[in-house]
Amino acid sequence: MWAPVFAKISEPRWNSDQSVTISYQAHPLVKSQFWLRAKINEGHQEQRALGLSPAVPGKTEWDMEVQTDSVTEAARIDTILVHENLGIVAGNAFFVANLIPVTNVNPMWSLLQRFCSVDEFERLFTSPGSAQDSENRPQRLFELRISWLLVAFGFTCFVLGPHECIRDSGTRVERGSLDLLAFHEGKRVLILGSCKINAPKESDYDNLVNVRALLLQDFAGADSFQTHMVVFTAAAETRLYKTLETSSSGWFPRVIPIFDANRLRAAIAALQNHHQDWIFEQLTVRIQDLAQAINSNAVDSY
Asked: Are 125 and 261 contacting, i.e. CB atoms less than 8 angstroms apart?
């Protein structure tokens, strides 16, 4: 009995966990002769093969779905449907950013550009002394521009300004200071931020660790979100991370990412490319490297 060969790739769907679902259809008589191939290109990163999950239970042989791992918004996915005898019979290519529904788009970056151009925004980071407020305090303006950047990445941000010091209750004794607080509700990420026009000093890192303990040591629900201590600086070039072994860090050291002028430029470029996950990758990559090294050493010692 002759049966026509029919297969096609349907429109992919973006999911709230940053994965993409790809649907394809194949005639029941020939569905076992097809397979789906795909590759993901994430900008400057190497291309990687798409890890496909099994077909969703309950689907018919006619309609099938596979789901990717989490992908960045700037990624491009190329898919082909291959028949074992006929070769490629269908293909599709798409950018993940184009799949995101309008209701999921962060408008803050685009709206900010109505008031401050991208070039001007970058200049304010790299030459903070050229911008001053009515009281001639470029430091305060630098803190404000960092908050703009974080808001554009989806954070709610408090610039603490004259309220930056933590004091013992009922006294004027200063225990520590912090320039800004930022929280991303969707990712459940808290940033404790220190802003420096010049290169940070060793005492700046110790101050952040101290403030973290003062704020969160007895904070109910602190384990419901991830906390990152971060230094933002207009310095031309600094280390990317500072690792600290503290009295409470245990076997895993504290890691403080440092965003210098070069990294701030990269942040602006990521926003221009709709790469909202960029900042979370920068916050966690060193921690992941350390975890892998610790696990590897544990295996070797075992």
From this structure: yes
| CATH, residue 88 | 2.60.40.10
The strand pairing partners of 282, in sequence order, are: none
Radius of gyration of the chain from Cα atoms? 24
- Cα torsion 210, 214, 215, 216 to 10°: value is 90
Q: What is the pLDDT of residues 251-291, one digit of tens each?
A: 667 899 999 999 999 999 999 888 889 999 999 887 777 65
How far apart, in whole angstroms, are the C-alpha atoms of residue 100 and residue 97? 6
Q: Are residues 233 and 202 in the same domain?
A: yes
Per-residue CA distances from 119 to 67, 123, 146, 276 (Å): 38, 6, 15, 19
Give every CB contact of residue 280 below 8 A, 6+ residues apart in sequence.
187, 189
Q: What is the pTM of this model?
A: 0.63
81 with 128, same domain: the answer is no
User: What range defines the domain where residue 198 resides?
Assistant: 106-285
Residues 89 and 130 in one domain: no
pLDDT digits (tens, 9 = 90+) for 64-90: 667 777 777 778 888 887 777 777 777
User: Would you state the torsion angle of the CA atoms of residues 122, 125, 129, 132, taken in this order, to the nearest 10 degrees?
Assistant: 80
